[in-house]
Fold each of these.
Amino acid sequence: MAGNMDIAGIDRKARTAGYADGLLELFAAAVLMILALGWIANPAFVGILAAFVVLFGWRVVDRVKARVTYPRIGYFREREDDTSTNPRGMLLFIAGSFVLVVVVVWLSGGIADPVEWRRAAPLMSGISLSGGFWYLSDKSGLIRHRFVAVASVLGGLGLWLFGSGNDYTGVVLHLAGLAVPLALLGAWSLLRFLRTNPVRRAEGQ
Amino acid sequence: MSDVFVDPDRLIHEPNRLALLVVLNAVEEADFLFLMEQTGLTKGNLSSHSAKLEAAGYVEVEKTFVGKIPRTVYRLTEAGVQALRRYREHMSGVLGSLD
């Protein structure tokens, strides 16, 4: 083994190990789909629903990782923040995107008009989610996460430009439109992960 | 002879141990199986190299149980982080001085 070790490759593989099982994409897809359903059922509770799902959803992911991921590739805990883009930057970006949408709505002359706010909702969703996925791509180094970030902005922009604002269909379509490909990507990654990594019950077996 | 050709840290200069430190530098902590998977080392090699890194104070080891299954968790110490950083700078200096 010594002498022909690809140290850069080992570093890259270790840094992306947390994304190999596809559970993150599946979790994100579930969150987005639940939010989409929340917008249909009762838009007033979407914020609370989002906080609830993210808070308790991670525990479910951790349990699944303990049963599916760690017996196959071993236990590891990712670094909290080891990239140039930190979570504070992402939150600032989301806050900035909110201000940007307020300006857009104001410029379109409908700051007090609920229709304009409903119309701008997918744009807000698109920009803020892109911040999250951009941060994720920075952390994971995976191009698919950057692709989702770009698709989120473009989708939100398109739905804002061509949406009517009569109801919340735009934001529901945006969330579901991201959730479906993410779920497929996650399922594909998980299947590949299960196929290529057999269970190794104890250390060193 | 230029300063950059001064001996590197021999402990890290060994590729298997360097690989172990690189993996531990990428994560907060990892167990034995994860290190084996990532580096491709055998159980014996991994035990031997990790023991040397632990003796040097570059990694810390915690032995626990998950149910009835033993789990040995490794973490890079601050000394390990600094040693890896110095080694990287040293090697960059050496290779950077070549035409």
Amino acid sequence: MGDGLVSTIAVDGLAKRFGDVQAVADASFEVFEGELFGFLGPNGAGKTTTINMLTGLARPDAGKVRIAGIDCTGNPKAAQHLTGVVPDESNLYPELTGFDNLCFCAALYAMKKRERTTRAQELLEMFGLAEAANRKFAGYSKGMKRKLTIAAGIIHNPPILFLDEPTTGIDVASARQIRQLIAGLHGAGTTILLTTHYIEEAERLCGRIAFIVQGRIVRIDTVGNLVQPMQEKHVMQFAVSNRDNALPGKLAEAFPSLTFQGLVGGLIRVEARETINIGPLVRFLEDEGAQVREARRMQPSLEDVFVQITGIEAGAMRKEKEKKGGGGP
Amino acid sequence: MKWWIPFWNILVKDMRAYYLKPPNISWGLIFPLAWTGMFFVRSGGGLESILSILPGVVVVSILFGTTSMLSVTVTFEKKGGSFDRLLLAPIPLKLLMLAKTSGAILFGAANALIPIILAAFWVDLSQAAWSAVLPAIFLLAVTSTFLGLFIAVSVSEVFEAQTFSNFFRFPMIFLCGLFFPIERLPVFLRPLSYVLPPTYGADILHGAFNVGNAMPLPMDFALLILFSIGLFLVSLRNIRRRWIA
């Protein structure tokens, strides 16, 4: 990417250290106008710190930031009128109603009273919160809070939006609705930088994705390009009863051209460069006393790419989701 | 950018959300009343002693009213994350902090008027130099508010802000010449009095209520203004260093 595209967010060599921890190290990337760019990584990878540095909530130790062509490195206020930020925690005022919260946020961007009222009502309708408009924010459910926080982030119609873990910790239905809203904003031309640790969410929504691990960006590419090398592989998954833990090792010895991996729940994953002939595999497994219940051809996903590039098991990412309280894709 | 829109709305929001809440209104009423009563009883004098304790009560009402509120409107909001929303808005930090402190300044000034109104029922205040009293109340409210801001941005928790506030507030009651002259303090404590802003506000009020002031009025006003500017600038620097680190 790059030719003919307008760079909306340009980051070069961004770094941030907190004590002994290098939160972000030499991060460089560009987000183009109208793009939905994903920042994918586990908790503590440096996603929020990066967003904080881009939006003016943290000062970088090194590096440069340009937003909409404005050099914000030393003066983050310079581009704040162009950006909307949805933080990972809902941070509206609990004692104000949903409507008043939105009107207050609009006033922070110097919107006039009539404009504020109209826009607040419009967003409450759009986010399905019109009936709760006059209820205090403190009484909202998690999903409603998240939706109102997103509405507050776009109250001034920003052309650039930073979304930090927008669906973390909320119920499945709300998460789905929020993803639809994000897709709608992207469709309307908003440039979006989205951080998430939900791989499927990034895959579904984002055009390009940066993998970030321990503060370092390890890969940036389109979803298609990331998955492409994996698609050249043939992957099968066997569901096996009475599985012996040594079975993947025995299979590897017997079929050296194939790669085997034992998974939880009696699953065995097989990868190969060429078509996998399942007959000999099934016979071998049965000779070893295992019963093959199912053999399924797998489509390689972004999750496979993430695991391959970062070395982080998808299971660990799922545990993080569970710890945060569900709401996954 | 029409700066007055965010400024006004931040002020109104804080007024509605914090200052005009019944517990704070009652705090604003009961506290000055309690101080007035306590010092009146302690003075052991007749009604004429009201005039001598009035400046001290006014200063204490302002000091406690303002510093208590900043720990809520600033420290609490920072802890809860909603202060970040203000930092993300395209408002210069100075303007933002002026908006956040305006409510406390008004609250402090309103607190100061309560003992004066009460005193007016008992003693003749017609001889008071109101042209000095009102600006002194305003400047004291500003200085105390910025002292509260300095405290609020130096800590992370609301309880820390309250504890740290008391570290300043209670010594000030005794060191700033509010209820007895600085000259009666031990010599080694007197320099401390002169580095505490309420000393100068109390001095103006003592003069204005015909109790007698120790320093020239222009110097008192100038020092209060200098304290206000200094505390505000140090608070801004602390916000940049601690909260936008």
